[in-house]
Here is the input.
Amino acid sequence: MSRIVGIDLGTTNSLVAIVDSGIPYVIADAEGRRLTPSVVHVPGPDATPVIGHPANRVRLLKPAETVYSVKRFMGRRGSDIAREEMLVTYPVQGTGSGPVTIQLHGRAWTPEEVSAEILRKLKADAELSLGELISRAVITVPAYFNDAQRNATIRAGELAGLTVERIVNEPTAAALAYGLDKLRDKARIAVYDLGGGTFDLSILELNQGVFQVLSTHGDTRLGGDDLDRRVVDHLCREIQQAGGPVLSPTASDPTILPMLSRVREAAEHAKIRLSSESETEIALPFLTPAFSFSTRLSRARLEELTHAIIERTRAHCLRSLADAKLEASALDQVILVGGQTRMPLVRRKVSEWFGCAEFEETRGDLRLGDDFHKAKGPQLNTSVNPDEAVALGAAIQGEILAGGFRNLLLLDVTPLSLGIETFGGLMNVIIPRNTTIPVKAGELFTTAVDNQRSMLIHVLQGERERAMDNWSLGRFELEFEAAPKGVPRVGVQFEIDANGILHVLARDVKTGHQKVVQMKSAVDVDDADVQKMVEESVANAFDDLRARQWIEAKLRAGETLIATRKTMAEYDSELDPDYRQQLHAALDEVESVLSLENPKTKTGDPARLKGATAQLDEVTKPLAEYAMDKVMEAMLRKKGVL
Ligand code: AMP
Here is the structure.
């Protein structure tokens, strides 16, 4: 089964992520960059499209041939699109119920085709990085996307050669990345997502592992780009005041565009730097051959220039809460998604609006659901990289669909030990608990009784010493030729495949005759049952150990009794009466300790039994020596030596 990647197909940037050995991570391109601008440049009629960073670089130089924010047109009809939305720098067409198309070098592209180019690039990056073909993906969409928009996203995936295993809502994916599905049976979460070009606030309710979007509100034309524009305006004014060229952000003059492109880039970089610095330098050397520009911008000034834009998100937050019929204090967490939420002003504002407590210190899953904390309002959770959360969540969803993460508590390990029943009803562990799967392990077993013709393979799961205290997964019999005890060799191998299914193989080593039996899933065990089993094994550890010691002592005592009786019967007439009495006393002691076995618990006193058996061994030593001498004598006589 091939792996399933998670893709955040964003308006501004797109990312691809995967779960590897239980850990989700974003896959970088060949240059080590994890964010791919959702920009496609088509250089000519038959030219191969340029995607991502190189396309973004020519965006201002070749505005009519470079498509950005195509997500806005996905699954839309001509009549759906507002005039304002048509005002992109590339030619968009569409009327009435007709499809929306983009004219590039005389060819009409559908938004799906343009998106497919981005997906193809992400697929290729993932294949290069992972060294394997990728054909399956989970793709995220905004919660407000309708059926047509979702279907268009699936079509884009198919055009890129991907089977879209699932379309997941972006806020749900973000919550998955934050691990919020594991924390409580019921929780309410707000997802504040401010990206490059869009904003939305979704309220989710988690109910026993399933997320439901209670409400979502937003603005598809509000994001980091708007902040950049404010900074660009500010810089253009300063450039003009410093005697530089007159730059109008809406200019179409071809000599102005490259300059504006540089100003725009410098503005965004300064904005990003000001998330971690309080002041920054902006330098634009040789803006024209005769003019170089440099200035300083403080975080306070940036906040002055942009706070009105951030304030615009507040109304959407309030509306979302009202739609979900919730007060902010009823929320457990507010999580931040989208690169723009790294801005300290955004964090401060969101924290203030939602009445979040001590947002500076809160991290991860601290105190979620704690009543004391809830009284103080929701927690602002910023523990996941905000521009990667959605892609990571999509990858986690992909892993779940691929059969990983079956059990949130125990991912891909055996929850309990697996083994078979052996002599005396003991559990013989073959795969210990917490072993990573897939796994293969085996052992050789033999018979305890003469002339046994088959061996019963009783497969057990659990942590207890005795077979009867563990769970029985199944049993089957392997036949072989009759032979004295200890001679037959039966190899038993356990294999747990990637799906958690246990295959048990038993093979008669002599003839190669074998049976393979598939048991039920060895991993799909209820968490509560696992916990109970482990707790019981701890609570009964002493009794279990005693039971094992008793069974082992009993097996040893049984063997000694049989051997002693056999030898005594053979040499009875030659035995000294006192010595015979000593032997009987030692035999009686072993038998009397055995008879003290508690019929209910099937255990006795292992130390006493071991002592009695050792005493019997000691007493039988002269008999054993005598028997040995007799055997030697008979042999030598036979050979004519004596
Ligand atoms: P996204 O659509 O989630 O990729 O978000 C992209 C937006 O986040 C762009 O406007 C970026 O300029 C902005 N952004 C990324 N990193 C930061 C940062 N550290 N501080 C402020 N804004 C950022």
Observations:
- Residues 424 and 552 are 8 Å apart (CA to CA).
